[in-house]
Design brief:
The chain is mainly beta and 254 residues long. It is 14% helix and 54% strand.
Amino acid sequence: MKGTIILKPLEYNIFADGEKWRQGDMIKGSLKIKNHSMDNIELPALKISLAVGNFKKIKSKDKKAWESLAEIAFGEKISVAPSEEKEFTWEFKLPEDCQITENDKSIFLTYKDHDDTWPTGLLELVVDPKIVIIQFLEILDNYLRFKVGTPKFSKGLVEIKCKPPTSKEMSHVDSLILRMKEVDKTLDIQYIFNLHVFEMVAGNIMAQKKITQVDQQLTSKQYYIYGNSLNHDFLISSISTVIKEATPRFFLPK
């Protein structure tokens, strides 16, 4: 992946090794600066940052557009001779629970050759959820027949809205919202069930809306058999147990 910007007489090219990443991945690359003039150019400072960017605020150049995750400083008063091209290598590790790419936000590489708050240049990265989260959703889809929505990001967790299958056992479930992260080989899952149930109220059976949340924490020794090979049987059983625990065991009498 490459981003180019020309601010005469300097040309900036930022390179990232890859086209797409997942939460927790290592990202490596370089920043090249070429002086197209016949004069020596001195840069007051040079920094490259890994940051979360808000698209709307970036467009309006709002100073609150950025949330810095990490930064590398290459020094001050960097001299670029006439026709010279200088290269600066960098690497960052994405946090395991970092922002994923979605409609309003993404992870960016930004760089500055001055002390101003707004970057000289930037490069948007495409960041997807961790592979175990995708594998978990595939189990819900393929084995448990949930219709899985598009992952979003909220408060440090990947959030997915799922529609239950049309079965008697799931007839009281309007939707299931999953909120997930994997950090330090531990998978944290919040199951939020939006239910409609029938309860006795003042001697009458009434339809009621209800939200039930079940929290679950699994270790990689449980959800992987070896390497990155998923323990499907364990996860299917684990998810089914949560669903059974959270959903009503009674129905409207005939």
